[in-house]
Amino acid sequence: MTKSPDMGRVEPEFRSLYEFPFDDFQLKAFERIRNGSSVMVAAPTSAGKTVIATYALWQTLHAHRRSIYTTPIKALSNQKRQELEGLFGGNVGLLTGDRSENREAPILVMTTEVLRNMLLDDPASLADVGCIVFDEVHYLADPDRGTIWEESIIMCLPQIQLVCLSATMANASEIASWISQTHRPISLIRHDVRPVPLEHYAFGRSGLILIRDVTGKRVRRVAETVRRHPRHAPRVSPEEVV
Known about the structure:
Helix content: 25-40%
């Protein structure tokens, strides 16, 4: 068996849950979590932020404490519960506005609104919670729903370790600074490498036409693509685009 480059830096039991080697930013986050620090991870989609959250849940479970994983919407809560159940069979519950399953489980998945309501109505019920994961914490900047994240972080008991996951954003350091002042010190870990190339295409009668390549360079303009396919051209159905 080929030895993974991160063996020795991660507990073998957790290491065995994944077949791929961990990136440096993940290993850095693992170390901070292992030392009891709160962390905020800002990284592109599909970079592996959830692995860091899973490590925090694994650590808390092995410390015989409870943990909470929050998501912005119920559909995502259902999906996340299913994923975590595959890793922590029998130890994951779900709590949303209309569903309650295995609510006494050591790992509870819920929407951020449910957590905020728990903190308002019965904060004592979270006394044995060691870690809370805030997925999509960049919602703090949302003008309509951001207050839910703000209130949840403000009301969190100071002894709870926070693991905040965010897409890359320009003001990540400002948000980390606010959390450090509002709750307790939090380490910001940034990772700017996008593992899934981002390209922009337009769909015309000849199929997908590249507009902007992976380097961000504009190859052609959408207006030029439209001129190539005049209005009298046959309409493209949604099935063809898919």
